[in-house]
Structure prediction request, 794 residues.
Amino acid sequence: MTHPVPKGFRLAGVHCGIKSNTAKEDLTLIATEKAGTAAGVYTQNLVVAASVTQNRAKTPSDNFRVVVVNSGNANACTGTRGDRDCREMARLAGDAVGGNESQALVMSTGIIGHFLPMDRIESGITAASAKLAANDEAFDSAVRGITTTDKFLKKASRSVRIAGQSVQITAMAKGAGMIGPNMATMLCVVMTDAELTASLAQEMLTHAAELSFNCISVEGHTSTSDTALLLASGASGVAPISSTDKAAFQQTLDSVCIELAKLIPSDGEGATHLITLDVTGCATRGDARRIAKTVTESPLVKTAITGNDPNWGRIVSAAGYAGVSFDPAKVTLTINDTLIYEAGMPVTYDEKQVSDSMRGSFEVRLELAFGEGDASIRFWASDLTVEYVNFNSDYST
Amino acid sequence: MTHPVPKGFRLAGVHCGIKSNTAKEDLTLIATEKAGTAAGVYTQNLVVAASVTQNRAKTPSDNFRVVVVNSGNANACTGTRGDRDCREMARLAGDAVGGNESQALVMSTGIIGHFLPMDRIESGITAASAKLAANDEAFDSAVRGITTTDKFLKKASRSVRIAGQSVQITAMAKGAGMIGPNMATMLCVVMTDAELTASLAQEMLTHAAELSFNCISVEGHTSTSDTALLLASGASGVAPISSTDKAAFQQTLDSVCIELAKLIPSDGEGATHLITLDVTGCATRGDARRIAKTVTESPLVKTAITGNDPNWGRIVSAAGYAGVSFDPAKVTLTINDTLIYEAGMPVTYDEKQVSDSMRGSFEVRLELAFGEGDASIRFWASDLTVEYVNFNSDYST
Prediction:
């Protein structure tokens, strides 16, 4: 699978010394050649990194030039000095591409509560700006530069025809821990060479995030730094104007974001299964979301999946404490398409066959149906393993 | 520490064959000699065991005679047959002590979704009723009969002077997993020989539960079966009438319930630390509760405590996604009484000393202060260990 860089973008990742591992990029620049548009969606945590506060004030924007990302340090809970450092990062990145601070966005991910090494950030921005390019190597170095505990690179790409011409959407993301629904310590940058107004870009990114990044969970801990950006260079000269073209672009954007979102719990720290949960038949999508969030965050549900145990009692009882009103006598559950529980009662099924199907596949599919209405949601989550606990109780992490 | 059985009660635990381990009691009867009063508080899960539904309809009661408890099978998600079995259990227990079904309460704990072996239950009730006694041995066998994965027996006892005379409060509880705030797979029976009206008993138990059983968490999974009962035999002939006596009794009841409640996360599956969290300075107790629940349920907070890591970033960021409005610039955190974070900023402290203090003690004390008002809450929770995950991902559990 190739991930062509959309027209009008150049990017680079470099190692500037934020992380001690010198083999690993820790600073990424992504720049447009001319002013483009940028939209953002952010963490819903009340405690946020400086970058989130400042990006919120700058997006949506129709005068975007560059985003600078550092990994290894979240610049969160760092007070007024952290605010100053973040503004300085934006200024340095803006200058480096011939723009200014107001045209630059910042993302920082890594440890909370430490000040950024600004001398290294500055030399990193200088080095990266000298390496900006639009080829595969530049793209991969940029993706590596935004990662932390990720075990693989998260990339997705599609082209879509608009007004008879092809435009490109290519995106990267990072994230493996501190992942709760409503974003996570995840960062995502979606680049497109389509021409989008700032307000349309914001509307489309918000729609895509609702179906993707807001539906994933590793352990349910919402981070201080979650950011997803949609950047449009306009370099294709093609804009979605008709409702058909808008729908085509939206659908492709959704698909790219869902592909990336699923990769995050798939790479969840220590994960041995990706849980795909469909909650259907709810009165509202909000109800479905609350149930999906509660079920996928239950450590007892997660550990049952880890153990390839079709333990429906844990799943049904987790739905029961989601704070959503439903009739337990109408609840139905399938695991890997096998009916396990129907209309509030367990049914006879081949338990060994279901357990074997769980053991044999990385993805485990659950469907919980409520018979209360037409609303539904799809969530993706990690299971919970000994490796997750070892990793996160290791003092050094 | 002794746990005298309050006057007017007799009890017994027997093995009747619900659990395969023949050395272990699995059925308990607790009876009053004459009709007493009973109050109950129950799980807030929407999916509940038959016993919860039937007890709710019977309490508060001024015509109580007996509670029958079985462990090894929760009789939850068992439909109309489960309802019938539960009523039959009440009828058998009522008959066995010379009363009737309406005077009998039922508690069941164990696996979800299996029918009760009613023949064994019946012979167990017969055997237990023949052994009813008021001595230490009877008390301990009754406590053993309500346990499941508990590693130790949970008992508490106090006497309190009312109207110049002493009354006794003695209680038992069980619980080690599927423990979320707002009750858990926990059962508790508080016996007293004080004379209480049904409404006063209910009011006092509700008050005590708010400070105790509703403030504990192992993994935050609210169960289908949680039940705490306050049983008053009246056999002392002493009733709390004056406001002073009522306050003295309430305070003693609170203290018994808090002592038992803390034992549950202390025995949380695989727990290596008891986390005691004080959330202070909130606008409302509801706000304090939401923050305490969110912080103590975060796997990242729990694993940091497991690793003796004063990782304040995880604690402060968990508060930030509790859904409570506060000013992050006013948040202060202490760990084991050492100031770690003040007014929204980390402070300099001896990290090794704090980590050593965590390593050296089973209990780790956190205080999060918000400066938004006068409301507070105290929560108790388990940490999260490899043993918890191993235990709960073991297919056979």
In short: The CA atoms of residues 305 and 378 of chain B lie 17 Å apart.
